[in-house]
What we know:
The complex is a heterotrimer. By secondary structure, chain B is mainly α. Chain B folds into two domains: about 1-80, Four Helix Bundle (Hemerythrin (Met), subunit A), CATH 1.20.120.1200; about 125-165, no CATH class. Chain B has six helices and no strands. In chain B, helix 2 (about 25-45) packs antiparallel against helix 3 (about 50-75). Chain C is mainly alpha-helical. Chain C is about 75% helix and about 0% strand. Chain C has a two-stranded antiparallel ribbon with strand order 1-2.
Amino acid sequence: MFETIPLTHILIVSTLMFFIGVFGFLVRRNLITILMSVELILNSVNINFIAINKFLYPERLEGLMFSIFVVAVAAAEAAVAIAIIINIYRRFSSINVEDVSEMKG
Amino acid sequence: MKEVLFYLFAGLLLLFSILTVSSRKILRAAVFLLFSLVLTAALYFLWDYLFMASVQLMLYAGGIMVLIVFSVLLTHNIDHKFDPMEFKKIIFSALLSLVGAVTVIYVILSHPFKTSALAAAPISPEDIGRGFLSYGENGYILPFEVISILLLAAMIGAIVIAKKTTK
Amino acid sequence: MNLQTFLLMRHEIILMIIILVMLAAEIFSDDKKNTYNLSIISIILFAIHTIIGYLPGEQGTLFGKMYINSELTVQMKNILNIGVLIVLLQASQWLRKPENEGKTTEFSLLIYSTLLGMYFMISSGNFLMLFIGLETATIPVATLAAYDKYRNQSSEAGIKLLLSSALSSGILLFGLSMIYAVAGTFYFEQISSNLATMSHTPALLALGMIFFIAGMAFKISLVPFHLWTADVYEGAPVPVTSYLSVVSKGASVFIFTIVLYTVFKSMLVLWTDAVIGIAVATMIIGNLFALRQKNMKRFLAFSSIAQAGFILLGTVAGSQFGMSTVLYFVLIYIFSNLAAFGVVSIISYSTGKESMNDYKGLYNTNPKLSLIMMLALFSLAGIPPVAGFFGKFFLFMASAEQGYYYFVLIAVLNTIISLYYYLLPVKAMFIDTNETPIEPLKSELLPKIALVLCVVGLLVIGFASPVFEYLKEISFGI
């Protein structure tokens, strides 16, 4: 019954989500919101992996396994990013990209 | 029923994603991100990927979001509102993303996907556990071990940066 | 699977043991004086590891072809080892600064972990291992870039590196998901055999490959994905910059070449066009920016962008000769770039001067340093008889052999432009006069050893043809 939803619809949703994330990454000026955009991107990739695994290649769990690893990597990335962001905040009292940028040219 | 739920979830997912990247209050953006992550978990539940759904809920919604909200509260005044973004920049980024999205969607629509005839058997956590611990083909013990090195190194690095030095 | 098969992973296992030993030693030593001794011990251990790497060993695959060990991957790891050893030697002076007290051992721990990630990345036979190796090789480097907590630029470099690498992993993964949709697996071998059976290349696969190339281009800092490079290279501490621009870049180029040659070999026509386009843009933009730089670190950073464009000449060739030139060039590039960074770092630590104008008249006060710098710049520019000349010459040959004459012509023109800016510092050091030249410097023992290693490498490798012959023997083409 559920298989009536074509895979393409799911992939379109995740593609849109991916590019919304890219848009956020380009447009946002605040470091934490940039990080949020990255999480959106990684999340959309995970949807892709799971959906392809489920509808095209259900005999092996490769996509599922991959997405679990992606989640773990995303967690490590977020933890390190936040450690650096808080350090930046201590120095600048701001985490906006313009305020942080000391280097130009 | 499931179809209706899927399209409902997908629509909400996109709505909250857009709100995440456009909201001018950072805490709201964080909450919208939380909603999109939870909705993703709901999709996994729909597809009977229960383990992945719970991983998504615990790690993303429970772990990463807590980190993000925590750092938002540490670094921001809650009432703080971002300045509106530069118009030129929005147009440029939107155009770039739109072109990318249209290209990818066009290619996806033109690709003949052959849906597997196999009725997907429900995946038990046992299968996943065996996958993580076996070392033959389709065994994932090596990446499982390597990622522990990544986590160790990330932890050491984060501690080095965040710790107070006696100075 | 028995214990002996694990010997295939000797590089990884020995490095892992070193990491654990250093971690335990760090935990159990609380005396501050010990930390310097610890860093010496860690360098000695790593030197032993580098030598062990050259011992002959067996080849094969492990973990259901997730891990591939061949003579080629072993030599790639050995090349990276040399680079890391030199970086560690150069870093010792920086690590002894008072603000780095209490985090000296962590520096080598983080370097080793990222190197381990690169090992697994190079040896991967599955995109999952490639991805995890790549992340292990990047995330801790971001913390290294942010190491100087008391310098604002350093934190900025760290966060810029981390966020841009996160975006690039997202792009890479998106591409991988498309490849997975078409090929149905992540194993390199199965993908390439599945693709070989297809009568025509599906558009989805081509798009996936383009996303993959874009994601890797971020890591190798190729144009148009190079925007993060200059700020990160300038802001990060000098040893980290040299590590990023030499070792990280080299490792990414290696696996990029391997994947293009194995997984996408049936799509040769498609990716050569894409890679040539990126390479041309990279050479030109890298050169144009390098021309204008007055800060030595930024100058080296932009020139390293241009160098990455040259490396792609070998990748594009798609032949056995092409791959061996990539290895050979990276080996030489390690020596030349690290020699240049070594001199810059010695001067920067002792005097804090980084501008090109400060280098005026350096030859009168520090003749040895100036000569080494000159040698390194000549090698980067490709002036005979230094090793860099042969590296570039072989790259051109590899590409010309496959008939990419226009591409080679553009590369030669770019080399000529690069001559101009590589000679600017040489002119400053040897010809220009300066009222207040940098006073004669006495460098410490370890950085000195590093410089000597670089100089020996620069002079010997250019003339030792067996090195290139050997690299060619172990390489493979399409």
